[in-house]
Design brief:
Elements (H helix, E strand, L loop, with lengths): L1 H24 L28 H5 L14 H20 L6 H24 L4 H17 L9 H21 L6 H14 L1 H29 L13 H13 L4 H6 L1
Length: 260
């Protein structure tokens, strides 16, 4: 139904706007609940300047007061979150009445988007977000109506088993290849998706990360206006998040992934 689709998309836009505010204010002295203001002139923004995507378009990406440029991150994150919410609703069917299931997925994937945005900005995965994601992933069988599953060995080991390779990369490279935060992030993904989907998502993340890395190296050689090499740092959290979502949305078990 179009009305349900519209509500879900608008909800995603609003959550994306909140994610933007959080990513800029986390670990700063500014409260996440403080009124929004321009980073350049400090002027408090009115409601018409805070409408997701539309405000950025109508203001031509500039502050209405000082004309300073507004980061393109704002509409991009809002749009991505809105689309992700629509994909989640589509995955379960627009006529679903299991709102607890829907809400849990909204929360989980919103957390992954927020962590990814912060990782891109600061090249670090916040512990608070990773731990909350892990807790949500571990108790997810209870929320989904399968409480007995939380005691099953497959569920218990899914998170640690998928996090282990990333933790080994961090340990043996002394943090040069990968940060420990990526392992913490994969812990929650593994518990939430399960071993098969989680492994498919992680493999997808490595493939995508490799392709993007090679693409950036080639682009830096051609354009020569930015520098990127094998030693450059590339946040891996967004790739883990994207790979996990692709594996979940398309139901890519590890068997089907290897067969392809």
């Amino acid at each position: 139904m179009m009305w349900f689709l519209s509500i879900v998309f608008l909800l995603g836009l609003s959550i994306g706007s909140f994610i933007n505010a959080w990513s800029f204010r986390y670990k700063t002295s500014r409260s996440i609940f403080a009124p929004s203001s321009c980073f350049s002139c400090g002027k408090k923004l009115t409601w018409i300047e805070l409408v997701p995507i539309l405000s950025f378009v109508f203001l031509h990406g500039k502050c209405r007061s000082c004309r300073a440029r507004i980061s393109f991150q704002y509409p991009l994150v809002e749009l991505i979150t809105g689309l992700v919410f629509v994909f989640i609703a589509y995955r379960f069917g627009f006529a679903t009445t299991n709102y607890l299931l829907l809400t849990t997925h909204f929360v989980f994937w919103s957390l992954l988007i927020a962590i990814s945005v912060y990782d891109i900005r600061q090249t670090i995965i916040p512990n608070g977000g990773a731990y909350f994601l892990a807790a949500l992933g571990f108790i997810s069988p209870i929320i989904f109506g399968n409480p007995e599953m939380i005691f099953q060995l497959e569920h218990i080991i899914a998170g640690p088993l998928l996090a282990l390779p990333l933790a080994c990369f961090w340990f043996f490279s002394r943090g040069k290849w990968m940060g420990l935060g990526d392992a913490k992030l994969e812990l929650g993904i593994g518990w939430f998706l399960g071993l098969s989907l989680g492994l498919s998502g992680m493999l997808s993340a490595f493939w995508l990360g490799a392709l993007v890395g090679v693409g950036l190296i080639v682009a830096s050689r051609i354009a020569q206006h930015f520098s990127f090499s094998m030693k450059s740092e590339l946040p891996f959290g967004p790739f883990l998040a994207f790979g996990a979502f692709v594996a979940w949305f398309f139901d890519l078990s590890i068997a089907s992934f290897l067969y392809v």
